Amino acid sequence: MLTFKQVGKTNTDVTLKLAIQTALEREMDLVVATTKGDTALRAAELAREMGFSGKLVAVSCAYGAKAVNENSLSDEMRGKLHQQGVTVVTAAHALSGAERGISKAFGGVYPVEIMAALMTSVIEMPTKVAEYIQVCRQMNIKILPPDVNRGAYGFSVDNGAIRYGLSAIKSVGRPVINALVEEREANGEYRSLKDFIERLTGTVNKRAIENFIKAGALDCLEGNRRQKMLVYGQIVDSIAQEKKNSFAGQMSLFDLVSDEEKKEYEIRMPDVEEYDKEMILAFEKDVLGIYLSGHPLERYRNIMEKMISAKTTDFQPDEESGIPKVYDGQKVIIGGMITEKTIKYTRNNKVMAFLTVEDLLGTVEIVVFPRDYEKWQAMLNEDARVFVQGRVNAEDDKPSKLILEKVRAFEDMPQELWIQFKDKAEYAEKEQELLETLKGYSGVSAVVIYLKDVNAMKRLPAGYHARISDSLTGELRKKYGESNVKVVERVLKNF
User: Which of 265, 287, 320 is the endpoint of a domain?
Assistant: First the structure.
């Protein structure tokens, strides 16, 4: 039995998808208990999306009828169901009132296993996987990255969390995963990048290895992702050459030296820092179709919280009332990243656009009419981080939309970089080093020096204004201390 910690329509979707998937696998028909018909209608929509072609029956008296032939299903809803090919039966379903008995008998089934099975069923559909991951996070189920030493073909349960399926990695098919798992089970875990490549030579190509690295599936082995990206090609070529020489009966240098001496000639990991967070997330998006280890907007959380007046979730109908938090005509500001952009032409051949903007919680559709698109189009590109001010367009039983009026890019928001030193002497000692570092990150953000002992501040000249990034703050924190480098966002009074 599937159990949930919280009530809501999300639970209904998860349950329906599981039921439909089971019906597909077992070639069965599907019976749905419904009172007002909404659940049955949603089941019909999902069944169509998932390719279910069996019979769908809606039992309209989920909890028994108030009187003979009397129930809560309206004639209008009954008509909608018939249009979707749903057979409607006015009766109470067989398990009506038996929920407690089932619960006592079986004690519940862990939702982690259920969600892992659901994600495996749509493993080739990244958007669906992303949707289920969002559900998992709402259920406080942790999602672990793919791992060549712990993962399987599909999504699996790992100490109460869900381990990402290896086959969800782009350009890595079932034969590769099967060979990887079989080799691991036969001869133990992979010990190094070279060991991994050597044991799977002839099975994995360079493209697959690169995608394993980008996905984080080789993070369990020595070295960061950047190090592995720089050497994996050399390792592949080296192993191929050794096998070629061996096949031809030729001796190599390795045949003449001891095992201890061989280590001196092995390809070593270069001394380089890991990629910055945004690059890692970009890699994950490229090979997994989703951001797994974080979100590109995470670093903007503070300024977003200060600037916005509504979140994307506020545009979704409430799970109980069916009414979104925003109302029709309300003026709001949202912030996020443009993930989709569709251009349309009006009857007058003018250009308008439909955007999907994603924040840390979900997405909302933005409508941009021709006059506003002409004004703001330079800022309305995919992956752009923007604040959007607009007017809510609400419809019954549908997520609300936002009609765009104004746009401001995240990078246009005023920021200051504060660097703290304990006293004037320490700053004097490190000043030249700091200025040289700032020259490599020239930008528009002011840099403020703060002297802790005298509680004094100094703004550096405009020539040392900086382009604030994870790379810059990371470098400065390494040099001057984690707590001594801070990015301060300034909220605009007028949008």
Answer: 265
Give domain status of residue 275, yes or no. Answer: no
Does any domain span residue 384?
A: yes
**What b/e string do you get for 53-66 counting C-beta neighbours within 10 Å, with b at 16 or more?**
eeebbbbbbbeeee
Residues 136 and 256 in one domain: yes
Total-model pTM: 0.61
Are the C-beta atoms of residues 143 and 162 closer than 8 Å to each other?
yes
The residue behind tokens 């639970």 is 11
Same domain for 343 and 460, yes or no, is no
> Considering its fold, how many domains does the chain have in total?
4
- Determine, yes or no, domain membership for 224: yes
132 lies in the same domain as 253:
yes
- Each of the 495 residues of the chain gets a pLDDT tens digit; together they read 555 555 556 678 888 888 888 888 777 778 887 777 888 889 888 988 888 888 888 877 544 444 444 456 777 888 888 888 888 766 544 444 433 343 344 344 457 887 888 888 888 887 778 778 877 877 788 999 999 999 999 999 999 899 999 999 998 888 999 999 999 999 999 999 999 999 999 899 999 999 999 999 999 999 999 999 999 999 999 888 877 776 655 555 555 555 565 555 567 889 999 998 889 999 998 999 888 888 889 888 888 988 999 999 899 887 667 788 999 999 999 999 999 999 999 999 999 999 999 998 888 999 999 999 999 999 999 999 999 999 999 987 788 999 999 999 998 888 899 999 999 999 999 999 999 999 999 998 999 999 999 999 999 999 999 998 888 999 999 999 999 999 988 777 667
Instruction: Name which of 258, 213, 260, 251 is nearest 232 in CA terms.
Output: 213
What residue numbers bound the domain in which 450 lies? 415-489
Position 163 in a domain: yes
Distance CA 277, CA 285 (A): 12
